[in-house]
Write a structure and sequence with these properties.
Layout lengths: L8 H10 L2 H9 L15 H23 L3 E3 L7 H10 L4 E5 L7 H11 L13 E6 L5 E8 L7 H9 L6 H4 L3 H17 L5 E3 L2 E5 L16 E5 H20 L20 H11 L10 H17 L8 H10 L1 H10 L1 H10 L15 H14 L15
Parallel strand pairs: 1-2, 4-5, 4-6
Antiparallel strand pairs: 2-3, 3-4, 6-7
Helix pairs in contact: 1-2, 1-8, 8-9, 11-12, 11-13, 11-14, 12-15, 13-14
The structure holds iron/sulfur cluster.
Iron/sulfur cluster binds next to helix 2 and helix 10.
Length: about 400
């Protein structure tokens, strides 16, 4: 393994998008195979197109702000908080946006948050917020908030659940933003709150994602109406717990115990070339094609329940456990009696035909195909690697 690195806000956003502990563990600790940004995993055409669209939107937004006399460009090099303040104070506009910011996170202040959470601190990399919005009041107070320009709109249902659980009203626009965007703006705001802790500076309680106009940024100009704001105090409890409590635990886990699941999102991950053969070798659920993270959770629940009712042989892989379970109709009937919805959902995921031969074994084409692929490698795999108790795959 490589030496320990640091985590950037972009790493955190990718982690939330991929929903994979192994990704962030690899970024920080170095992967077992030493994959780097220049690994053989080239991004898909879709990923490249999305990346280009994001850059085009940023360019279009900055140039519009510039033409509107609303942009202050600072040199793209790590800036001291004092230099940032000097730049802001030297600008007499009442409303403008700063771009090009590069700031080192206040590690000593963040270390206090780790200490409060009683976890081992880790280093954060250079913070590069897209935009800092500045509004100066008549009495000279500098109000600020962080904005990120994002060209993509994806629905993440759990964000809606988050709002519901918090008892907070939310708009449809909120649903079109990913929490992966929010972790970035939250982290930048956290850092800047410490760095700009000056009596004449006032942090707004919101941060925002600046989306392109609905009919496209090639035909319409950007609008302040497309800034989707979110309350920082609303995000703080969940993200502070994640950053200072949960993340240190994930980063310090031994490699073999880190949670991961090979799934369709992996095609955009730089560690895909090492995870693909690993999942096949270890017979994880991801050795079946297109098993999403949610699907894997359902199947894991099914295996857990089955294991409680009649423990599996510990040397069986997840794929073999599924085969074993469906090949024994009596065992499956017990689970069916306890949790019919779970069995029904699992059968759907595994493409098991609704009708079956009386008392005969039930075969999933997905499980059987994955087993056949495993046959060539399973003889090389030591039993402990095939243990069903290896966490989540
Ligand atoms: S390829 Fe998939 S399983 Fe592997 S680290 Fe990336 S997201 Fe996680």
């Amino acid at each position: 393994m490589d030496g320990k690195h640091s985590l950037s806000a972009t790493n955190l956003a990718v982690y939330q998008h991929l929903d994979c502990d192994l990704y962030i563990h690899n970024v920080y600790n170095g992967s077992s195979q030493g994959a780097t940004d220049t690994s053989t995993s080239s991004p898909s055409e879709l990923t490249k197109a999305q990346y280009k669209r994001g850059l085009d939107w940023e360019t279009s937004l900055y140039s519009w702000l510039d033409r509107s006399q609303l942009l202050l460009k600072v040199p793209s090099m790590p800036l001291e908080a004092s230099s940032l303040l000097e730049n802001v104070q030297a600008d007499d506009r009442t409303h403008f946006f700063i771009t090009g910011l590069n700031l080192w996170p206040p590690q000593a202040k963040l270390a206090e948050m780790f200490a409060h959470a009683r976890t081992e601190p880790f280093n954060f990399g250079l913070a590069k917020p897209d935009l800092l919005e500045i509004k100066r009041t008549k009495d000279g107070v500098i109000g600020w908030r962080v904005l990120d320009a994002k060209a993509s709109k994806h629905v993440k249902v759990y964000l809606a659940l988050f709002f519901i659980l918090q008892g907070t009203a939310f708009s449809l626009a909120d649903l079109f933003l990913q929490t992966s965007h929010h972790i970035q703006i939250y982290f930048y705001t956290l850092c800047l709150k410490y760095l700009l802790g000056h009596p004449f500076c006032h942090a707004d309680d919101s941060a925002g994602i600046w989306l392109p106009p609905k009919d496209g940024f090639h035909t319409s100009t950007p609008s302040f109406e497309d800034i989707k704001s979110i309350s920082i105090s609303l995000l703080a409890p969940a993200f502070d717990t994640f950053l200072f409590k949960e993340l240190p635990r994930i980063l310090n886990q031994p490699y073999e115990q880190v949670k991961w699941h090979y799934n369709p999102l992996c095609h955009g991950c730089k560690y895909e070339p090492e995870c693909r053969p690993r999942v096949q070798k270890e017979g994880g659920l991801g050795s079946m094609p297109n098993i999403s993270i949610d699907d894997a959770k359902v199947l894991k629940d099914l295996l857990r329940l089955s294991d409680v009712s009649a423990p599996f042989n510990e040397s069986l892989t997840d794929i073999e456990q599924l085969h074993d379970l469906f090949a024994k109709p009596r065992k499956l009937d017990i689970i069916l009696g306890r949790s019919p919805a779970l069995v029904k959902k699992s059968k759907q995921i595994l493409a098991i035909p609704r009708k079956r031969m009386k008392r005969g074994p039930i075969l999933s084409p997905l499980v059987e195909a994955a087993r056949e692929n495993m046959v060539q490698v399973s003889s090389e795999v030591p039993c402990h690697v095939l243990s069903s108790h290896t966490p989540i795959y």
